[in-house]
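Notes from hallway chat w/ T.B., transcribed later so I don't forget. T.B. wanted the structure written out for a chain they're using in a teaching module, and asked if we could keep both sequence and structure tokens in one place. Agreed to drop them here.
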Amino acid sequence: MNTQSFHVLVILAAIATVYGDCPNGFLQHDESCYKFFHSTRATWAEAMMYCQLFKSHLAVIESEREQNFVEGLLRREYHQGLPDGCWIDGTDALVEGEWIWTTNGNPITSESYQKWFPGEPNSKGTGEDCMDLLHHENYNWNDESCEAMNNFLCEASATTGNMIVG
């Protein structure tokens, strides 16, 4: 390997380090990393714990840009036979009708970003306190029973390592 090739490799390694890294199997978007667990079905609480095993949390969607990315990711990975819903981090389990992101405690209000399916949240039936994205409704948000068995989307922060100095 000549000196010029070596310097190019060092620069590329430094750039990759500065821009961050995702855990294996996660896909980076902006400063977060996402993984759709399509081969595992879980209740909302189980999904939350499963994400923690991967040093992540259920996905928090706080902008239209992030929602568009998530929709594209789920559309690419969805296949026949999967449940319609995909768990994300929102809940109103603490106070009925007051939706929050559990990871950061931020309220989900008309002033913040939200993409509820029309008529949702509706707390139909025995109480629907957990949030999922509905495949058949273009991944709009829905309130669902926390005991439903769904796939789920985890999110982790992109980590930045030490910059290589040559």
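Follow-up for T.B.: The domain at 3-157 is CATH 3.10.100.10 (Mannose-Binding Protein A; Chain A). Might be a good example for the class.
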